[in-house]
C-alpha cells in the first residue's frame, strides 16, 4: 500500500504542479474542470447510483455547467454566495447525522448537493487564479488545509480521546481538530511576522485561517457522511493507494470557496 501511495504521488505531483501553477486562462479552467468532472463521476456513486450510465451522465452535466459558468463570469458572486450557504447547511447536516439524512432529498437530492459542492470549488479556483498573486493564493489555501490535516493526524494519534463526530468519522477527535487548527495558525502567524503585517492584518489573517481550516473539516466530514450512508470506504480507486479524487479534495472543496469569499470581503480581489 505504501509503495502504491508513493508511486501515485510521484506521478500526480508534477501533473498537479503544471496544472495548478503553470496553466492559465482557459487551459487552467479545463484542467480544474477535468478534476471536478472526475469528482462528479465519483459523487454520483456516493449519491446511490452505481451504474455507469448515470455516473457518466452526471459528470457530463457538470462539464456543461462549468462551460456555462466560464462563459458567464458574472455568476461567480452568486455561486460563491451559494457555497457559503451550503457549507453552513452542511455543518448542520454533519452535526445531526444520521437524523439529517432524511433532509438530503434521496439520491436525486444528493446529486444536487454534489453540484453545490463541486461547482463553487471550480469557480473559486478560477477566480483566485485571476486575482493578484493568484498562484500564491492557491498555494496558501492548500498549505492551510494540508498543514491542518498533518497536524490533526499527529495530534489525534498522540492525544486523541474525545470523538469529534463518531457517527460520521469515528477516527477523528477533538484533540486532532485542535492540533490541526493550531498548526495552521502557527504557519499563518509565522508568515505574517515574516511579511511584516500590522496587528490588524495579523488578527484578520488568523481569524480567516481558522474559518478556512474549520470549514475544511466540514468538507472532509461531509464526504465521509455520504460514504458512510452509502456503505462505501473510498469514493473510487482512481488513485491507487489514495482512494478516489474526492477522497483527496474533499477538504479543499469547502476551504477554497470560503477562502475566496474571505479574501473578497477583505478587498483583495473583484468579483
Automatic annotation (TrEMBL):
Alphabetized GO MF terms: phosphatidate cytidylyltransferase activity
Lineage, highest ranks first: Bacteria, Pseudomonadati, Pseudomonadota, Gammaproteobacteria, Pseudomonadales
- Which keywords fit this entry according to its UniProt record? Cell membrane, Lipid biosynthesis, Lipid metabolism, Membrane, Nucleotidyltransferase, Phospholipid biosynthesis, Phospholipid metabolism, Transferase, Transmembrane, Transmembrane helix
From which organism does this entry originate?
Answer: Stutzerimonas xanthomarina
Q: Name one GO cellular component term.
A: plasma membrane
Q: Output this protein's name.
A: Phosphatidate cytidylyltransferase
Membrane disposition: Multi-pass membrane protein
Q: Which family does it belong to?
A: Belongs to the CDS family.
Which chemical reaction does it catalyze? a 1,2-diacyl-sn-glycero-3-phosphate + CTP + H(+) = a CDP-1,2-diacyl-sn-glycerol + diphosphate
Per the UniProt record, one Pfam family is CTP_transf_1
A Gene Ontology annotation in the biological process aspect, one of them, is: CDP-diacylglycerol biosynthetic process
Matching entries from PANTHER family are given as: PHOSPHATIDATE CYTIDYLYLTRANSFERASE
Query: Is the keyword DNA-binding assigned to this protein?
Result: no
Its pathway is:
Lipid metabolism; Phospholipid metabolism; CDP-diacylglycerol biosynthesis; CDP-diacylglycerol from sn-glycerol 3-phosphate: step 3/3
- Identify the EC number(s): 2.7.7.41
Q: Does the keyword Iron apply?
A: no
Q: Could you tell me which PROSITE patterns the record lists for this protein?
A: CDS
Where would you find this protein in the cell? Cell membrane
